[in-house]
Amino acid sequence: MTYGGARGQTATEMATALHYGAAAGAIFDGQNGLSQALASRAASALTAGQQVAQQNEQPAPSQDDFQLQVVNSVWGEQTYPWAQPFLTTLAKSYGTGVYVEDFIHQLDPARQTINSWVSTETAQKINNLLPEGSLDDTTRMVLVNAIHLKLPWATPFQVAGTAPASFTRADGSTVSAPFMNQTEELPYSDDGTAQIVALPLMGGQVSVVIALPHGDLATYEAGLTAATPDALAPPASSASVAISLPKVTFTSPTFSLAQPLQAMGMVQAFNPQAANFTGMCPTTPDGANLYVGDVLQKAMVAVQETGVEAAAATAVIVAGTAVEEPAPIPVVLDRPFVIALVDVPTGALLFLGHIEDPTAAGSP
């Protein structure tokens, strides 16, 4: 969404950092298509779950356990004339308009309103996305994306099979955790760097892909690039897998993506003077130049015997700063200089001379 308002080098850097490539011009339609495709996943999974329940003569599953939604919202300073093409992109491809807020005089109420929206859209799994102090008097727009997923496994883990076992952390220390255990025919591969297994969720359209590195996690993660997408795709072949998976319920703190994005080459967007987001607002009423002040994200995941629940929210905080005037060029007339009086329209020299000594009075 933020890219939709970027122009010039700012847009080029964003497209490069986010690997849009030749698809940069179609990225909005692609995002729209992806959102529409994902919108059907929960209903398909629910239908599959109902069929399984009927076959096994079990109670019908609850619709509350079949959720997958991606939602967007944009919150803009009420005094700004946001550009119509930008608003059209938001409406057509992201299903949102701009909710006007008074970021100048009612900053904290605006922050709380955004946090409340995120909490509601993620079933209260992501709370306080924007911590106190994350917005300031330069904030002019906040662009938010939120996702909430809750789906059961295609083959649930049996609670009776859950047992405590040891988990070794990166520093070599160990902790005891409840492990879910199951033997099942699952998509599986070993590419030499990790064991990769996919655990399908109900309906088979969404899977949890897990990679267990043979070496340390940091080295493995460092080797994951945009050129190696298959590492996180469900393996094409299957095998009988005895999987032992720890139960997890974790919510991250709010963290910043500003430094990683700049390291990826998205530099100008964060520069208060050089950023070009004129596609959002060609002329700001206060003369401010729009730039990305920060990108904040918060996520949660719960892995249980019945299924998986995950939620995440991302906020791009667009700030405005007055265009910095260039430093004045010093002109110190401390040596002899020429002086002229010029008629500007005609260029005629009305007076021409020089000053060799400003203290000299000349003739009486």
Structure in a nutshell:
With 364 residues, the protein is an alpha+beta fold. It contains seven helices and 14 strands. Helices cover 21% and strands 35% of the residues.
Explain the layout of strands and helices.
Layout: H1 8-17, H2 27-39, H3 41-55, E1 67-77, H4 84-94, E2 98-101, H5 107-121, E3 139-152, E4 163-168, E5 174-190, E6 194-200, E7 207-213, H6 217-222, E8 238-246, E9 248-251, E10 255-256, H7 258-263, E11 288-303, E12 307-322, E13 337-343, E14 348-355
Parallel strand pairs: 1-2
Antiparallel strand pairs: 1-3, 3-12, 4-5, 5-6, 5-8, 6-7, 9-11, 10-11, 11-12, 13-14
CATH fold description of the largest domain? Antithrombin, Chain I, domain 2
Structural class: alpha+beta
Strand content: 35-45%
Backbone CA Rg: 29 Å
- Report how far apart the termini are: 74 Å
Taken from the alpha-carbon principal axes, the silhouette is elongated
Low-confidence stretches: none
Overview of this protein structure:
Strands 1, 2, 3, 9, 10, 11 and 12 form a seven-stranded mixed β-sheet that branches. Strands 4, 5, 6, 7 and 8 form a five-stranded antiparallel β-sheet that branches. This protein has 364 residues and is of the alpha+beta class. The chain has two domains: 3-152 and 250-322, Antithrombin, subunit I, domain 2 (Antithrombin, Chain I, domain 2, 2-Layer Sandwich), CATH 3.30.497.10; 163-246, Roll (Alpha-1-antitrypsin, domain 1), CATH 2.30.39. The longest helix is centred in the N-terminal third of the chain and has 15 residues, at 41-55. The protein is built from seven helices and 14 strands. The model has no long low-confidence stretch (mean pLDDT 88). β6 and β7 (207-213) form a beta hairpin. 27% of the residues are buried. α2 runs parallel beside α4.
